[in-house]
Amino acid sequence: MDEFQKSIEDKTILVTGGTGSFGNAVVKKLLAKNVKKVIVFSRDEKKQFDMGNKFNSDKLRFYLGDIRDKDSISHAMYGVNYVFHAAALKQVPNCEFFPLEAIRTNSLAAHNVIDAAIDNHVERVVVLSTDKAVYPINVMGMTKALMEKVMTAAARENRNKTILCGTRYGNVMFTRGSVIPYFIDLMKANKPLRMTNGKMTRFMMSLDQSIDLVLFALTNGSGGDIYVRKAPAGTVENLAKAMIEIFKYDKGLEEIGIRPGEKMHETLISSEETFRTEDKGDYFRIAPEVPNMDYKSYFFKGQGNEAVTSSGYTSANTKQLTVPEIKDLLLSLGEVRQEIANFKN
Q: Do the beta carbons of residue 233 and residue 266 sit within 8 Å?
């Protein structure tokens, strides 16, 4: 966060879906810095009320509304410098059962956010995407992939000089609905740790690292860029074994089989995107297919690059963590240390 301090000083920042895991974490960090104002836009008044009591800051403002309603999000954009678009339907099963709801929220409403930002002369917008948008096999991934396309198309138009870019990340440790708190809940219920398939690999990234990724995109992104943070990965089985060891749990593991819409491995950069991927140290930058409205370039100009292996960037070909390494990573999370203390009591 410190390296991005100058870029956010005296700025007004709006976070859509700001009462979620990412929203709470980024708001906490932004309020500790010299920002002018942080606006949380969401449709859950109870979470907004709780969040207001939690942070108790004069810099924090709340807007109650729905990104599906362009008027409500446009009203909240007035005077905003930067936007982090985190609002989405993220649960794979819910999106599978209610695909039209996912389309309305993840794709069409993203257009509302982007259009409202452009109309209000917002300086920069970062949309938060997911590994599931790469080679999508479920509705959640498909609608997020469309969100990315909406962003890159709007970036090509470059209306009002609003800079639009995006980020992709996979598993973020200890966020709501993720596997680590799920395993902890099973241990509290004295049940075996249930895995879909132990050989699945997942990227291991902390919430702080996901925030750094978004801030890096905010401060470095050009129109249509998508940024990925480099991260190690581990198998779900090794993650479960690491948790059993650090919690000293004795109920064992249970494999229930892969569920519809799940992948064996996470992919953050497709093999087709490797030709326009640039290595930025801790990050990868994926340039847009066509950076402007030059249709001739789109149809007749190719690209070549060797920043990423030709198979893309996946949780299977990144650094693989052993059980001891995963234990160290888990113990670096304050939430896990607190859960261990609670579990012993």
A: yes
Q: What pTM, to 2 d.p., does this model score?
A: 0.91
- 180 neighbors 246 (Cβ within 8 angstroms): no
Q: Which of 121, 126, 111 is nearest to 159 (CA)?
A: 121
pLDDT tens column, 83-134: 999 999 998 889 999 999 999 999 999 999 999 999 999 999 999 999 999 9
Report the top-level CATH class of 2-170+206-230+268-314.
alpha beta
Evaluate whether 124 touches 88 at the Cβ level (below 8 Å): no
% helix, strand, coil for the chain, step of 5: 45, 20, 35
Residues linked to residue 95 through DSSP beta bridges, in sequence order? none
Catalytic residue among 11, 29, 37, 132: 132
Residue 22 CA: distances (Å) to CA of 92, 201, 233, 270, 342 = 18, 22, 20, 25, 24
Lookup: tokens for 294:
């030059």
Residue 46 annotated in active site: no
